[in-house]
Write the structure tokens for this entry.
Amino acid sequence: MKKSLVICLVIALGLSIASSASAGKENWPKALAFGTGSVGGSAYPACMAYAYVVTKYLGVPATCETSGGSINNTKLVHMKKLLMGHTAQGASWNGFHGKTWAKGKKYNNIRAAYAIYPQLWHGWTLSKYNITKLSDLNGKVVSGGPRGGTSDAYTQWILKELGIKPKRYVYAGFGDTVGMLRDGHIHAAFASTAVPMPAANEVTSTLNGVILGFDDKEQQKKAADAFPYLPGYTLPAGVYKGQDKPVLVNADWVVISVNKEVDEDFVYNVVKVVMEHNKELVAGHKALKNAVPENSKYIMLPLHKGAYRYFKEKGIEVPKAAMPID
């Protein structure tokens, strides 16, 4: 009789623990697919790192889908065809507000979950051209990469905002800018990208190249005020050969976007495990050293309420633009 009672108590306790462990998870997805970019880009390997952490610590199978990049991920997350997506904030911000590529349509079902790393807008030139500041680009030939790309758009928008008028823009692949600079076909090139940028690295390493950024903090602030999704940032000294001083730039932060209807507790836990296992993230992709709670200060989209709950618990202040709206 006693033995039967003990067995019953053990079974009841086990059921109680199981029930407690699953409490609140009934609205969690059974699996999670993150939208990324192409396999050869930086988004996919970064996703593999945080998908691994989510799977390991939450027990929810997380995978990475090559879904077409930031603009497409913004659309897919908005429509809930993806629950979460890797998005450059410039793309998602403009989608949320119906600007630039969105052409008036607001993709406003997206919310921010967490920031992972910055893509820095900066330029490179050769010392023989005597270009040491942005204002020296007046009347010069400039490339911002392929036509219609993010780097091309940012380069033209920023220089126009600052009143700088190049002679013309050349639409070239970034790798091609090395030879074009050497041969005098262009005078400077720019990109919004993770650093070190391979083309800029080659120019500074082999052609006595010079890295370009904003002339001063006033110029940097003017650009950031015009484009709030591109906050000011400092490129540390030593990223490139011969770059012995910090350079003022701006940052297009890559932010994980999430559909606003995804369960609050689930998003809270995703953000928690990603933010609290940074060493494992960095082992998968070095740029993820920036995936820390403090960098939520760069988020310019409304946070999902689950993400906001995590940052609030940690005492992290977020910008006014990142305050939840749901």
User: Anything to note?
Assistant: The chain has two domains: 30-118+256-322, 122-252. The radius of gyration is 23 Å. The domain at 122-252 is CATH 3.40.190.10 (D-Maltodextrin-Binding Protein; domain 2).
